[in-house]
Amino acid sequence: MKCASCGKESEWTVCGRCLAKRESLVYLPPVITLIRCPKCKFFKVRGKFVNLEFNKALWDEIERRVRIHEEFIIKNFEIIGDGHFYTYIISGEVRNDNIEFNGNFEVRINKELCIKCSRESGGYYEAIIQLRADNRKLRKHEVDSTIKIIHEMLEKEIENQKAFLTKVEERKEGFDFYLGDSKIAKKVARKISNLYGAKIVESKKLAGKRDGVDFYRVTYLVRFPEFEKGDVVFERGRYILVTNVKKGIDILSGEKVNLNEGEVIAKFEELGEGVIVNVDDTAIEVYGEYAFIAKKPEYEVKIGDEVLFFRDGEKFFAFPKWFSDLISA
Ligand SMILES: [Zn+2]
Ligand SMILES: [Zn+2]
Question: Are the C-beta atoms of residues 43 and 109 closer than 8 Å to each other?
């Protein structure tokens, strides 16, 4: 058979080349519009704001907008441009003929604030994390670590439309973190609790109605324990050197123990240093800033051992200095 138009040998009445002249095999609009949130830079793709690179968002829109003739089998589709003006080259096959097309389009970006950013700028929050410490001020590392945990959690749920930190308030007694999502707030509170042995108290407060449903705000009071690593605490009849979160060493028996609510007897920086100058069956004599007699520990000690000591009321207590090597970094 010969092509009716050009006379070339073809299986069809009109060959591919001639069909390409008669019918538009490719249609791409001259302007491709992308919608991007000016704040978080997410692109709106099929009605949803997502974290996409510009090129991916552009391709997605091109795929949605391009019209291809059903007989055109595309082998290659390329775009070249500078973020604004583009040339496209499409090559493929129609009725066994190789065809190449090219054309131009322009990319425009329209701004639209996404739901997440508009909530955030509207001061939306579902939960407050109240960061506090028992009988002492919060340490800088505790605050820094909490901020880091919050940002990590928000990063993990970047497409969650409530994943933002609305505001942070510094108060006399600690820090308040306002979070868009109460579930994220809960995860943050739990993580701090696991890492630092902080106690959590959760409370809910009715804050009106949203879409006809009662809307509650949750407060997570997260309280760091008074004791810190290196402190000596008193708990259930034992004096314990705190070596880690919720862990310590009984200074008289040398046993490793778990901690709950130890009462601080001496802060690490208050511990004195001395040397054992005498040992008998029940007592040791220590010489340092003070000379004193203390109860002999259940483990082996000898004259010349270096010790750390503290006082509880009238009594002195001492333990080997190397115990402090067990305090985790
Ligand atoms: Zn032809
Ligand atoms: Zn946004």
Answer: no
Terminal CA-to-CA distance of the chain, rounded, Å?
A: 85
* Per-residue pLDDT reduced to its tens digit, 19-64: 998 888 899 999 999 999 999 999 999 889 999 999 999 999 999 9
Q: Whose CA is closest to 268, among 136, 84, 171? A: 136
Where in the chain are the domains?
16-111, 115-224, 232-326
Q: Indicate the pairing of strand 26-27 with strand 67-68.
A: antiparallel
115 CA distance to ligand 2 centroid (A)?
Answer: 7
Ligand 2 centroid–CA 58 distance in Å is 18
**Residue 260: its pLDDT value, please?**
84
22 CA to centre of ligand 1 in angstroms: 10
- pLDDT tens digits, residue range 147-163? 999 999 999 998 888 99
The set of residues, in sequence order, having a beta carbon less than 8 Å from that of 167 and lying 6+ positions away, is 123, 125, 178
Secondary structure class of 3 (helix, strand, coil): coil
| 23 Cα to the center of ligand 1, angstroms | 13
**Pair of tokens at residue 157:** 């749920």
Give me ligand 1 centre to Cα 2, in Å: 8
pTM reported for the whole predicted model: 0.72
Report which secondary-structure segment, H or E, holds 59: helix 54-65
Buried b (16+ CB within 10 A) or exposed e, 23-57: eebbebeeebebbbbeeeebbbbeeebeebeeeeb
Instruction: Give the CA angle between residues 262, 263, 269 to the nearest 5°.
Output: 105
79: CB partners within 8 A, 6+ apart: 58, 62, 86, 87, 88, 89
Separation of CA 114 and ligand 2 centre (Å)? 4
Ligand nearest to the CA of 118: 2
